[in-house]
Design brief:
The chain is globular and about 35 Å long. The chain is 7% helix and 52% strand. The protein has a domain at 49-155: Acid Proteases (Cathepsin D, subunit A, domain 1, Beta Barrel). A hairpin with a 5-residue loop joins β6 (91-96) and β7. By secondary structure, it is mainly beta.
Length: 162
């Protein structure tokens, strides 16, 4: 089993300056984030090794480095990878993409593992080759939140049931 370590690749954005920060979550996973610094604005990108497994079929799993996207409700993975592991399309939803366009996508249900935690949830069938996204629903369901001030993933002391 691979250690759930977050990784990033250097980003070249022309005039923008990027600084690398390192942080540790409450689990043993280490998270690296690239921080965008321009005119006092800070923005972090965090990527986490995530494994998806079909709830119905036993055709293996899909493990990849996912971008943690707190702007996305559901998680997203390439449709060809989800089909390989036997994830069934359960329905369709209309989603607003990061560029503001609106598109209907099929979704399925999967087991989601990251940072030593396990949950289950909805995954959107993205276009083949699409960068996989870990949405906020998966994060919150295991009690992990993004701390924007410190640019880290933080484990809540308790998951709210109220």
């Amino acid at each position: 089993m691979k250690m759930p370590v977050a990784r990033t690749a250097p980003v070249n954005a022309g005039q923008r300056d990027f600084g690398k920060i390192k942080s540790e979550s409450a689990s043993d996973a280490i998270c690296y984030a690239w921080v965008w610094l321009k005119k006092g604005e800070k923005m972090g990108l965090t990527k986490v090794t995530t494994k998806l497994t079909s709830l119905e079929a036993s055709q293996g799993s899909y493990e990849e480095i996912f971008l943690v996207d707190t702007g996305a409700t559901d998680s997203l993975a390439p449709s060809d990878e989800l089909e390989k592991i036997g994830v069934r399309q359960e329905g369709k939803m209309t989603y607003e993409r990061a560029d503001g366009t609106v598109k209907e996508y099929p979704f399925g249900l999967v087991r989601i593992e990251f940072m030593g935690e396990i949950t289950a949830g909805r995954v959107v069938f993205g276009d083949p080759g699409t960068e996989p996204l870990l949405g906020v629903t998966a994060l919150e369901s295991v009690g992990i939140m993004v701390d924007p001030a410190n640019k880290i993933l933080r484990r809540l002391p308790a998951i709210p049931l109220k």
